[in-house]
Amino acid sequence: MKWGELMDKAYVKVKSITHAIKAKDILISNGFRAQVLRNTVQNPGESCGYAVTFSGDINMAETILRNNHIKFSGSGIIRNTL
Amino acid sequence: MIYLDNSATTYPKPLAVQKSLQTSPMLFGANPGRGGYKMSTDTANEIYKVRSLIAEMFNAETEENVVFTSNCTHSLNLAIKGLAKTGGHAVTSCLEHNSVMRPLNKLCENGNFSYDVANVFSDENKTVASFESKIRSNTDFIVCTYASNVFGDILPVRKIGELAAKYNIPLIVDAAQAAGIIDIDIKRDNISCLCMPGHKGLYGPAGTGVLLLSDDCLPDTIIEGGTGSESTDFSQPIFLPDRFESGTQNTLGIIALGKGIEFVRRKKLSYIREHENELINIFYRYCIDADFIYVYNRFNSENFVPVLSFNLIGIPSEKTADILAENNIAVRGGFHCNISAHQYYKTELTGTVRVSVSAFNTKKDILYLTNCLNKIAKFKKV
To answer: Is B229–A48 a contact, with Cβ atoms under 8 angstroms apart?
Structure first.
């Protein structure tokens, strides 16, 4: 079983793949385990974005991303429903 | 073949670049920024690594400020046409390649745009004064080459950048012959748009180019389309790099370009420039001593990039290049897509033969060239 499959995961939504990879690299360099996924938590009219999912404190992660000028359009928790 | 046409494109490419071009189609063949599956995100990761390398090398504010294009001409068109306003004006230099002059002239076709040409002198301050004298109240931007692709003259870009900042005008720089040779820092040099080929001094493959934007410069778009982002909106995204990267990118070329940039970083700019200058200086000294050769400037490593134009007296430049080609030496004759520089150097009727070297050339290559030129002179009784 791979990392995170049984855990709830936090996510931030970003507009493009470049922003997603940058956010992922910043989170990893700050000790988070993070990965880039397609944004599957879409609001109506929202499409073709990416999400960065990660383990750990979502507030801390958001602060780190803001401090690094990463703009994200939403965040939340993906609950594991297994 | 003795390849001395590196101003057109560097050859050979480093082994890592060649290997990347062979292996990447299997490893990174998916479209980045479109899918969420592994190969797509792996490919996007590789592209991002190259953005990071370029951002660091040229001191860009962020990786997003690195826009991939298909070549330097593409970058220049995005910058020039994106910053031009109706009724606007530009200042350029007398040494510009057609990749600058043709977009400028296209803008002028409808009569709603104009430009003035500043002269370039050996005295940097006189050059800057010439640029300043051309600035008007409606000047949209200054656009100039970092170094001439024909004669190698380096323009005082840092001082021109200070001038642009003083008048709050964006500066577009054509770094086709400078990137990978000269230390360029877009913040220090006050450059708004740095336009570069990937396939010359950065040793990437053909079909790669870069437009590097400063944080305070956002040109209008001239190409719009799918970016993989904000797909429900008919308007082009405003954020970088998507704003200027419509359509599928040359991913395999960009990944290989990264290997070229790593090659330059390992060798170090200073070493590459010193090595190439040494070779061109050997050739320059040979030309000066040969009474059958005419050179057009006094080459020195401070004021010129390693490019030298010459002519064999009495032989057309294209003919000289042709004879050299028959002897397995690759150089370029003619006008090098730059009639402006030829007019300035009074070679607009003859063109020149251009010799340009890379990190891979050796003194033996120059010796082979000079021996061949000696034989041509003897045979043709130049």
So the answer is: yes
Q: Rounded to two decimals, what is the model's pTM? A: 0.94
Q: What is d(CA A48, CA A38) in angstroms, rounded to the nearest whole number?
A: 8
Substitution target in A2, A11, A16, A26 with the highest count of B β-carbons within 10 Å is A16
Determine, for residues A48 and B228 on separate chains, whether the beta-carbon distance falls below 8 Å.
Answer: yes
Q: Which domains does chain B have, with CATH numbers?
A: 2-10+268-380 (3.90.1150.10), 15-266 (3.40.640.10)
CB-based contacts of A81, cutoff 8 Å, min separation 6: none
Domains of chain A: 9-78 (3.30.70.1940)
Instruction: Please report the ipTM that was assigned to this predicted complex.
Output: 0.85
pLDDT tens digits for B90-123?
999 999 999 999 999 999 998 999 999 999 999 9
Residue range B347-378, pLDDT digits in tens: 999 999 999 999 999 999 999 999 999 999 98
Residue B352, judged by CB atoms within 10 A of its CB (0-12, 13-18, 19+), counts as buried
CB contact under 8 A, A22 and B231: no
Which residues on B lie below 8 Å from A26 (Cβ)?
none
- The residue of chain B nearest to residue A36, with distances taken between CA atoms, is B41
